[in-house]
Amino acid sequence: MQLILVKSKNKILLKDLEKVFWDKKNYSLPIYQDVKDLLLFLKSNKNLIIGIFSKGNKRHQKQKINSLKEIFEEENIHIFLEKKDKLAFILKKYENNQLYFVDDSLMILREVKITDKNACTIWIKRKKRYEPIDSLPDFSPDKTIKNLKELRKIIN
Questions:
Q1: Long-range contacts of 103-110 (CB under 8 A, 24+ apart)
Q2: CATH number for 126
């Protein structure tokens, strides 16, 4: 989201801009439909714990996740300014479970595998620009997918 401010004769109050920015209607759009469909499907499997590990401003990320609040338990929502800094801490929480870790960052997936050798690392290549697979010659993800629908085959 870009914000453009233009000085004009009309006063625009910061609280009015903030109100528009944090409006919940603006946050249902960033969630890909395939994400929501898949998460609802996975939620129906009582043997799965679905978590989210996100990077960024906590309030902003929570607003984005809000449209999926029926899927995630609060204790499985992990938001930090930098993922890598908290990765080991988060992985420890799930150490007694089979972990499927999906990310679009090879560096994060590499750190997951270093921390938990049994984790299944899944690289989602959704972005138009992504890290080349040879950018980390000492690491290859266990699986590579282009969309989340492909997770159904991996997890089942």
A1: 103/53, 104/130, 105/131, 106/131, 106/133, 106/135, 106/136, 106/139, 106/141, 107/131, 107/136, 108/83, 108/84, 109/139, 109/141, 110/136, 110/138, 110/139
A2: 3.40.50.1000
